[in-house]
């Protein structure tokens, strides 16, 4: 298993673009699948990511008119926020995702308010997509046909209830969005995405186990990069093991959010490579709160 952290062509028909999320390089990666009939872009980054994505598409000599689908993993602004400006630059495309994602793309007011409250200046607001013909809801298991490439939408709730991963069968390419955590390419470790308010432990770990049914040779992350090789699926096993470890730490810390945040930061913080440096410590506070809120029995 090796890390892929350099934007550009990964292999035939598959490209990675640095979407410059959180206004920083190497925090948000989106992926382009170039089929014989249509091209799909996997995730859209934040609103400010649209220009880096369009620039990356030009650099790979992609045809804007060939892009038919923006496959959005879930409704958070750092994944769905680039959809509206990208649609303006990609005239023959539609934004696609879970029905809840599509609802948020059409009316993002609640998502924008939550992002601003949690992330401050980094919570870039989404623009609404007002033309319903540019929105397409995908049902779980639905396959998007790109010609010689087919992409399956895999429902993977846990990080959010509407989360989809996308699996391209020919290249055995699995895009995880946030379902498998945040990737640290230099250590080949992951950080669980246990953010408030939507994280739920049981569906999160069940979704990871669902992904083990696939046989990927490349596992790609929204934050940041990918791993590749015949043993690429081992990164999913690592994600499961880390989440189970976090649960054990939370139970030892007696569900004290400050103590948990400090413990997670000390043991896992040095491995976190995404997010601006000044934001990383704050992120662990949010991860700790979300973990506690999403553990079984937390609402009892």
Molecular structure report:
This protein has 300 residues and is α+β, with helices and mostly antiparallel strands. The protein has a single domain, classed as Metallo-beta-lactamase, Chain A (4-Layer Sandwich). The strands form 3 sheets. Strands 1-16-15-12-11-10-9 form a 7-stranded mixed sheet, with no helix packed on it. The protein has a 7-stranded mixed sheet with strand order 2-3-4-5-6-7-8. Helix 1 packs across helix 3. The protein starts with a strand and ends in a 6-residue tail after the last helix. 54% of the residues are buried. The model has no long low-confidence stretch (mean pLDDT 95).
Descriptive tags:
300 residues; alpha+beta; seven-stranded mixed β-sheet; Metallo-beta-lactamase, Chain A
- What low-confidence regions span 5 or more consecutive residues with pLDDT below 50? none
Total number of helical segments?
9
Task: Tell me the count of domains.
Answer: 1
Rg calc: 18 Å
* Multimer state: single chain
For the termini, the CA-CA separation is: 41 Å
Mean pLDDT: 95
Number of strands: 16
Structural class by SSE content: alpha+beta
Reported for the largest beta sheet, the result is:
7 strands, mixed
In helices, the fraction of residues equals 25-40%
Order of helices and strands: EEEEEHEHHEHHEEEEEEEHEEHHH
Under CATH, the homologous superfamily reads: Ribonuclease Z/Hydroxyacylglutathione hydrolase-like
* CATH fold-level name: Metallo-beta-lactamase, Chain A
Residue fraction in strands: 15-25%
Q: Given the C-alpha coordinates, what overall shape results?
A: globular
| CATH level 1 name | Alpha Beta
Q: Spatial order of the strands in the main sheet?
A: 1-16-15-12-11-10-9
CATH architecture: 4-Layer Sandwich
